[in-house]
């Protein structure tokens, strides 16, 4: 288990240092952008869940271009499946990166708020 985290700890440390060097105002803007991006990540699952419905609706029209006995139908189906798998993978990688960035920014903001002198 330590080997798994050992490979990635350098990246997280560099990212933490990068965010730690930013001012409070920059961190607020970065956090706002990341929250916006986080809320936009649901589009890919929506795309993948509606793709079969599109094929059902336009199935007769697709039958004209891809006859059932041709190889082009198989190629089109494989390309479609590869695009869907890639988009799901990309979506979850992006989602995990956004969560990591948000977590680091929130931790830095928490540390700064605890270490700053409070007005009386």
From TrEMBL:
Keywords: Membrane, Transmembrane, Transmembrane helix
Transmembrane segments: 40-58, 70-88
This protein's name: Uncharacterized protein
């Amino acid at each position: 288990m330590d080997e798994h985290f050992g490979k990635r700890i350098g990246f997280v440390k560099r990212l933490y240092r990068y965010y730690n060097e930013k001012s409070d105002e920059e961190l607020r803007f970065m956090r706002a952008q990341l929250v916006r991006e986080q809320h936009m990540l649901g589009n890919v699952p929506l795309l993948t869940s509606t793709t079969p419905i599109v094929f059902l609706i336009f199935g007769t029209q697709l039958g004209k271009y891809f006859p059932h006995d041709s190889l082009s139908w198989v190629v089109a189906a494989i390309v479609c499946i590869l695009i869907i798998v890639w988009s799901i993978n990309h979506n979850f990688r992006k989602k995990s990166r956004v969560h990591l960035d948000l977590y680091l920014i929130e931790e830095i903001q928490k540390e700064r708020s605890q270490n700053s002198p409070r007005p009386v």
